[in-house]
Amino acid sequence: MPIPVRFSSVGPSEDPRYDHVALPKRALIAFTSAHAPLYEDNKETGMFVAEALHPYNVFTAEGFDVDFVSETGTYGPDWLSQQDEWLKGEDKAAWEGKTGDFRKKLDGMAKAGDVDPDKYGIFFASAGHASLIDYPTARQLQRLASKVYSDGGIVSAVCHGGAIFPGVVNPVTNHSIVVGKRITGFTTKGEEEQGVLQTIRRWDRMTVEEAAAKAGGEYVGPPGPWDSFTRTDGRVVTGANLASARDTAVAAVKAFDELENNRDEKTGSER
């Protein structure tokens, strides 16, 4: 029996074994489970609130069902991300309002080993410096991202979320899904400006730029460390920093829609 094909207009597929079944209109946002002292008075890094909240808002506004997941089913918020300079107005209300949809999903997030990747058309790695600690060895999160990608879906990451890429393997090539792709993420210059590069070295972890190189990708930096900047290369969508969180999710939705529109053209169906 011939193997059906899912076609992509956002870049050539490494694996022709896709079928004509529509991708699930469901996004899985991944979170770091790690936390560690990073700021003054040993205040801790963890998940950066707005780097998950902004993508969540985009996906829900575009009609996606959204679920949250971390390697252990737990999370800790980054201290800096809760300060007024970084979390204001409706964002702050969404974080502090524990009965709202965002916070309820956050506090009830799943453990990665318990999640079925076949339910999702987008995998989105949110961030925070703590992502550098656990994403490189988060085998279950990597499994989820790899399966979403091998099924023809979109894999996306913002800021430090790209630390996951060396372990997200394309089963067809047995190499990272970003091999030969142009990707972005938080700059090493930005780590230096924040004064945290030496802490990252003490963690024995790579910067996002270094992780991109290890994974075989081509790192492309933003004009400045804090400028909004995204890259879409095939079915991999990346953003550089907090300012890019919303735009990265928008780009991921665009890539998803292009896949589905192209599938409809090939099958003669209408959405």
Automatic annotation (TrEMBL):
Output the InterPro entries linked to this UniProt entry.
Answer: Class_I_gatase-like (IPR029062), Prot/Nucl_acid_deglycase (IPR050325)
Alphabetized UniProt keyword annotations: Lyase, Stress response
EC number(s): the record gives 4.2.1.130
Q: Which residues form a coiled coil?
A: none
Q: Which GO terms describe its molecular function?
A: glyoxalase III activity
Q: Which reaction does it catalyse?
A: methylglyoxal + H2O = (R)-lactate + H(+)
UniProt record similarity statement:
Belongs to the peptidase C56 family. HSP31-like subfamily.
The identity of this protein, by name, is D-lactate dehydratase
Give the originating organism.
Answer: Lithohypha guttulata
Print the organism lineage.
Eukaryota, Fungi, Dikarya, Ascomycota, Pezizomycotina
